[in-house]
Amino acid sequence: PRAPRHFWSKGLFGFGAKLLMRAHCAPLRASATPKLFVIGTRDCFTKRSTLERFARGCAGDANEFVDFEGADHFGFVASPWSGRVCDTVRGFIADARSRASSSCDRGASPVG
Q1: Tell me, what's the pLDDT at 109?
Q2: Which of 5, 42, 93, 106 has the fewest other C-beta atoms within 10 Å?
Q3: What is the pLDDT of residue 102?
């Protein structure tokens, strides 16, 4: 079950956060660098569907989407999710490097 939305994720605070983050969106969407999108299943600030829509709109074909069962918006900095997130990020980076090496072997430019 999804946790209830907090009052600060709506109204003026939520709107302000969206405005602040908007400046980062265009460069992120345009970059073909592989991206890993993570969300907790109990995130009270961001809907999974919103993040998925954003991820689909990003350039590149190596973008991945992972959700962590039971984690909330801030849970990734605490146990047990912090270790899981670190392992997931390490695996994603290793895979991206491997894909980049393979494409360099075929004459393409590296990711980065």
Answers
A1: 54
A2: 106
A3: 79
Look up residue 106 and give its amino acid: R
**Count of Cβ atoms closer than 10 Å to residue 95 Cβ:** 14
Q: Phi and psi dihedrals of 56, rounded to 5?
A: -65, -25
Question: Contacts for 72-80 with beta carbons within 8 Å, 24 or more apart?
Answer: 72/3, 72/40, 72/42, 72/43, 72/44, 73/40, 73/43, 73/44, 73/45, 73/46, 75/40, 75/42, 76/38, 76/40
The owner of tokens 């946790």 is 3
The secondary element (H helix, E strand) that includes residue 66 is strand 64-68
Instruction: Flag residues of the chain having pLDDT under 70.
Output: 1-24, 104-112
Helices (H) and strands (E) in the chain, counts: 3, 2
**Exposed / middle / buried, residue 81 (Cβ in 10 Å: 0-12, 13-18, 19+):** buried
